[in-house]
Specification:
Blueprint (H helix, E strand, L loop, with lengths): L2 H4 L17 E2 L16 E7 L3 E7 L5 E5 L3 E2 L6 E11 L4 E9 L16 E2 L7 E8 L8 E2 L6 E9 L5 E4 L3 E4 L5 H4 L2 E3 L8 E5 L1 H11 L3 E4 L3 E3 L4 E3 L3 E3 L2 E3 L6 E3 L5 H7 L4 H12 L7 E3 L4 E4 L3 E2 H4 L5 E2 L3 E10 L8 E9 L6 E3 L12 E3 L9 E5 L4 E4 L8 E9 L2 E4 L5 E2 L2 E9 L5 E4 L3 E3 L2 E3 L2 E3 L4 E4 L3 E4 L2 E3 L2 E3 L13 E5 L5 E3 L2 E3 L3 E5 L5 E3 L2 E3 L11 E5 L3 E7 L2 E3 L2 E5 L15 E6 L2 E5 L8 E4 L8 E6 L2 E5 L3 E3 L1 E3 L12 E6 L2 E3 L1 E3 L5 E17 L12 E7 L16 E6 L5 E19 L3
Parallel strand pairs: 9-10, 14-16, 15-17, 16-19, 17-20, 18-21, 22-26, 23-26, 24-33, 25-34, 26-35, 33-36, 35-38, 35-39, 36-40, 37-41, 38-42, 39-43, 40-44, 42-45, 43-46, 44-47, 45-48, 46-49, 47-50, 48-51, 49-52, 50-53, 51-54, 52-55, 53-56, 54-57, 55-58, 56-60, 57-61, 58-62, 59-63
Antiparallel strand pairs: 1-4, 2-3, 3-12, 4-11, 5-11, 6-9, 6-12, 6-13, 7-8, 7-11, 27-28, 27-32, 28-31, 29-32, 30-31, 64-67, 65-67, 66-67
Helix pairs in contact: 4-5
């Protein structure tokens, strides 16, 4: 840096001459001070052997001052070197030093600063002695006179000190910009090229980058223009700026610990957002200096599925908390998103329920493929493939698929795909929008993992799936505050194929999400789950149209809480479609489901639609623990028959074994038969009879049997044929009638009157 060049500033004082000695002061150089013009003890010497033209002075005072009266500017950040060459020619030998007057912009002196440099003694006549000093604002090594930021200019020259009477000659005083001497310490950057980087795209510049980082000491590293090849992992521990770009092998990691943000990685990799994202994720999962990758609200254009295991090839598993947040991933229409479909024959055995064996064409079956075929339940995926053994490990068992048959394996393409890892724990995605564009699916989890988090994310128009679990990485999964927007909004309900998410493992929490017009909101195969505060709606345009399940529970003993949701034009379907031999052979039955305090709305749907559907895939099943309470059921535009039913496509429930079923405190609007259990029935007997037949009027849940009476109260006086009040105690006979949904109240003689019964359809 040279201010004389860049800003046109003039630092050099006038050369000595016989006519300008009035510009040289005997004082501080301020206006009005005495000068050397016409002074008897000073003269201009035009032809000195060493100096050419020079000023000769006889020292007559204890401190003989020489100052240029011109104002030499001192910009902030600029450093000036003042140099004088002096020789003694006669008399006493004095000492010489650089000196100056520090002036504020208004001309007053800056107080409290040094104005004189170190003195140098003249010891020999005729010997040229050079003295110099550097003046500037900053307290830097090598600065002699530190004047701070108040000094706007100075009057510079020399002092002669020591004995009087001596005569000296002084060459023209030189003032020059010395700022360049301090660039390495005053500038906040170092350039990798100064440490040997070539930047030709071929030479390995890794060592130069590391050397620049070692020397930066908190300053910024500048990667100046060029293409720098880094063949190995490089970690930078100081701030860095990229004018040039870098290239690296897939397995080499670029750790930018002080600039761990997507914008810097995009600059580093020449504007390639997709590559920059991959390398940033690679660093996130290899470095220890950052817990999150912040996309800074940027949209990353994605041209093909991002295989995260391929991005981080040195790791098969990861179990430290890491977060990717705050940005968008957008699928671009490049032709790289088409599903891959493979058809193979395979054998399934109930004794080996997690595997397909004797798989033909096993090498071509991709991990993560959706499996379809006879007896295959919803959302069953390929968890792993053993080509040598011709075996496929399943994400879930099949149902009633024993034997050999043809299966179809369809591999969807995901914006983010973790399936290549063995295990991923405590990984978080926060504030991301998956802009699937109807081209790609959203997110595929790893085969194994625990307590992963998906929070405040948008899955916008996934082509097939929003979130897919192909194994147990959904153990303890938290899905909070997410939105799922279908690409099938205009399709009829029965024609939709997309699924917002599926899970296989236990302890999943799905909370405060919103999903619109998928075939299913969630297919759940694990237990001990919580679904709370969500709004999912799946209606269509057709009047009297069909509806699909919003929540599919595929485990009988699901132990699941469904609470405080807005369930709109879809059902909660409870099945056992994960059982290889689906007929009941033991266990708890359909157990442990609690559906409480939800708003359940239907509109313009078929009258047979129900919000709660139990679908046994085999015979002999029953409900053993179901709590439906505090819900509001409402149908708009039409009526539906009931809110709960049994889908008997494969088999009915054994209504004679029902246990611990509670339907209480629900509100029914435009529901023909509002179910309750226990059911209160008011019976009015207008004719004398020994046996009063009490009808439950189809209001027992699932059209169940009237299995018992837990209470009976006479509400008017019981009267015999003579109209005399009798205090008989009747008894009851449950499970009467063809549908076993009636109760007989039996008296010892013909009676009439009114009773209220509390009837249960369970034991």
């Amino acid at each position: 840096m040279n201010k004389a060049i860049t800003d046109g500033l003039v630092f050099m004082p006038q050369a000595f001459s016989g006519t300008n000695l009035g510009q040289w002061s005997r004082g501080d150089g301020v206006p009005g001070s005495d000068t050397y013009a016409s002074l008897a003890t000073a003269a201009f010497v035009p032809a000195d052997a060493d100096f050419g033209g020079c000023l000769e002075i006889q020292k007559t005072v204890s401190t003989q001052k020489l100052r240029f009266m011109g104002q030499t500017p001192l910009p902030t950040g600029c450093y000036l070197r003042v140099t004088a060459r002096v020789k003694a020619v006669a008399g006493a030998l004095p000492s010489v030093r650089i000196a100056g007057y520090a002036a504020q912009a208004n001309g007053t002196a800056v107080s409290g600063v040094d104005t004189t440099g170190d003195a140098v003694a003249l010891t020999t006549y005729g010997e040229v002695v050079e003295v110099s000093a550097i003046i500037g604002a900053g307290n830097r090594e090598g600065v002699d006179l530190i004047w701070g930021t108040e000094a706007a200019y100075g009057h510079f020259g020399i002092d002669l000190t020591g004995a009087n009477g001596g005569v000296v000659r002084i060459d023209d005083i030189v003032i020059e910009d010395a700022t360049g001497a301090f660039l390495r310490t005053m500038m906040n950057w170092v350039d990798v090229r100064d440490y040997g980087a070539v930047g030709d795209g071929t030479t390995d510049d890794s060592a130069a980058f590391e050397a620049a980082d070692a020397d930066a000491n908190g300053r910024r590293i500048l990667v100046s223009a060029g293409t720098y090849r880094l063949n190995g992992t490089v970690s930078i521990y100081n701030p860095i700026t990229f004018e040039g770009t870098v290239t690296m092998p897939v397995g080499a990691v670029l750790n930018l610990t002080k600039n761990f943000d997507i914008a810097t990685y995009i600059e580093a990799f020449g504007g390639d957002e997709e590559l920059a994202f991959k390398k940033a994720v690679q660093s996130l999962m290899n470095g220890a200096d950052a817990e999150s990758l912040d996309l800074g609200g940027r949209r990353i254009s994605v041209t093909e599925p991002i295989d995260l295991a391929a991005c981080v090839p040195n790791r098969e598993s990861y179990a430290q908390r890491r977060v990717i947040r705050n940005g968008q991933l957008r699928a671009e229409d490049t032709g790289n998103w088409d599903p891959v479909t493979v058809t193979s024959t395979a054998t399934y055995s109930a004794s080996n329920e997690w595997r397909l064996t004797n798989v033909t064409n096993a090498a071509n079956v991709p991990v993560g493929a959706l499996i379809t075929g006879a007896g295959v339940g919803r959302e069953v995926y390929v968890r792993s493939v053993n080509v040598a053994a011709q075996e496929i490990t399943l994400s879930q068992p099949l149902s009633d698929a024993v034997g050999t048959q043809s299966y179809t394996f369809t591999r969807f393409q995901y914006l983010l795909d973790f399936s290549g890892f063995e295990r991923i724990n405590v990984f978080e995605l926060e504030g991301l929008e998956f802009q699937c564009q109807g081209l790609a699916s959203g997110l595929m989890l790893a085969p194994l993992g625990a307590v992963n988090v998906i929070r405040n994310c948008y899955f916008n128009r996934p082509a097939q799936r929003g979130i897919t679990s192909i194994g147990d990485a959904c153990q303890g999964l938290l899905v909070d505050l997410c939105q799922f927007i279908s690409t099938e909004g205009g399709a009829e309900v029965q024609d939709r194929t997309t699924v917002a998410m599926n899970v296989n493992a236990n302890d999943v929490k799905i909370r405060s999400c919103r999903a619109s017009q998928f075939r299913h909101f969630v297919v759940m195969s694990g237990a001990h789950n919580t679904i709370m505060g969500n709004h999912f709606f799946q209606g269509g345009a057709s009047n009297n149209g069909g509806r699909t399940a919003g929540i599919v529970l595929t485990l009988r003993a699901c132990n699941t809480q469904i609470t405080g949701n807005y369930v709109d034009n879809c059902s909660i379907e409870w099945t056992n479609e994960r059982e290889p031999e689906p007929d009941f052979s033991g266990g708890f039955g359909f157990a442990g489901l609690s559906i409480t305090n939800n708003v359940m709305l239907s509109s313009d749907c078929a009258p047979w639609f129900s919000h709660i559907v139990v679908k046994p895939y085999g015979t002999g099943h029953y409900v053993n623990g179901l709590n439906v309470s505090g819900n509001t059921f409402r149908c708009v535009g039409t009526y539906i028959n009931r809110v709960e039913r049994v889908d008997t496509s494969y088999a009915p429930l054994d209504l004679g074994k029902m246990r611990s079923v509670s339907f209480a405190g629900n509100t029914y609007h435009n529901i023909e038969y509002g179910a309750k259990n226990p059911l209160r029935v008011d019976h009015d007997q207008n004719t004398h009879a020994n046996v009063w037949e009490v009808d439950t009027d189809n209001r027992l849940p699932f059209n169940g049997h009237a299995m018992g009476v837990e209470g009976l109260v006479t509400t008017t006086r019981p009267r015999d044929a003579g109209n005399i009040t009798r205090s008989h105690m009747p008894y009851t006979q449950p499970e009467q009638g063809a549908g076993k949904d009636k109760v007989n109240v039996v008296w010892p003689e013909p009676m009439l009157g009114d009773v209220t019964l509390s009837i249960r359809m369970d034991r």
